[in-house]
Design brief:
Length: about 290
């Protein structure tokens, strides 16, 4: 094992300790409150026109944008949900095979979409393998491009590049590339692209994976502050009032049962803790506009 791998493993272990987890959660709520205070009113952006949400995995659409989706469908506005991967690799299980898990997650996704007012005809599963999106980058750009041209949405919500997951970062880049190509070719006019934050508060979102431990500590201290200061200067975050849609959003998040509960009773089956889900189900959803 080389030094860089050592550092990375050590940093990950340290970040998973209960004390570090508590500290990270506290900092993330401070960060989220700070973003909310510096956000512009985003309601006006979404109260007209059609929306397409691009999610890397089944559940990101609900965690990141569930309230906004429900707000739009409650006004009779069209929403298309595109999910890039089938989620077959979210768990390593003795009792459920990857193909079965993918099938289950597709069913959960349709239940979640229904809770948000989106019918099955408006849910598109691209079927890529989760954890391996970077390897399929060109194909992902092509498939997103095809859908973007077909639907020509007025708003497009994509995952943030600041997220601590390489599938999320790759889907961000792929969606940006697809939109740029469709706009240049004249297939897309006036589409506003915004990004949603899911795992941005995790330490991995802010450090270079091959950095030494002292360097990682320095990055952890400086990069989030630089990010917040940049947002404060540019005011490139908007907030959408989703308070009335918390019940719908909670139902959508919980519809992803394989992610929010231990469906196999295996001790290693990791779930998104209920309090983390509740953090996502606040009365506001935040989007970056640049
Ligand atoms: Zn995800």
């Amino acid at each position: 094992m080389d030094q860089s791998v050592n550092s990375s493993v050590l940093a990950r272990r340290a970040a998973r300790s209960p004390i570090a987890q508590r500290a990270i959660r506290s900092l993330s709520s401070v960060g989220t409150r700070w973003l909310q205070r510096n956000a512009r009113d985003g309601n006006i952006i979404f109260d007209t026109g059609s929306l397409m949400v691009i999610a890397p995995h089944p559940d990101d659409e609900s965690l990141g944008c569930g309230g906004t989706i429900a707000r739009k469908t409650s006004q009779g506005l069209p929403v298309t949900v595109v999910v890039v991967t089938d989620g077959r690799n979210s768990h390593n299980s003795e009792t459920i095979k990857p193909a079965e898990l993918a099938e289950l997650r597709a069913a959960e996704l349709l239940d979640a979409a229904a809770a948000l007012g989106v019918g099955p005809e408006d849910v598109r599963l691209l079927g890529f393998e989760d954890g391996h999106v970077p390897e399929s980058y060109d194909d992902v750009v092509r498939q997103i491009g095809k859908l973007v041209r077909e639907v020509a949405p007025n708003q497009l919500l994509i995952p943030s590049r600041q997220d601590a997951h390489r599938d999320h970062r790759t889907v961000h880049d792929a969606a940006r590339a697809a939109v740029e190509a469709a706009t240049e070719a004249g297939h897309l006019v006036d589409c506003q692209v915004l990004s949603y934050l899911i795992w941005f508060w995790k330490p991995e979102a802010w450090v270079d994976p091959d950095a030494s431990v002292p360097r990682m500590c320095a990055q952890l201290l400086t990069r989030p502050v630089a990010f917040m200061r940049q947002i404060g200067r540019t005011r490139t975050v908007v907030a959408v009032d989703t308070d009335r849609f918390r019940t719908a959003k909670r139902a959508a998040v919980n519809a992803h049962r394989s992610q929010t509960s231990n469906i196999t009773d295996e001790p290693g089956w990791r779930t998104i803790p209920a309090d983390v889900c509740e953090d996502f189900i606040s009365g506001q959803e935040l989007y970056l506009t640049d």
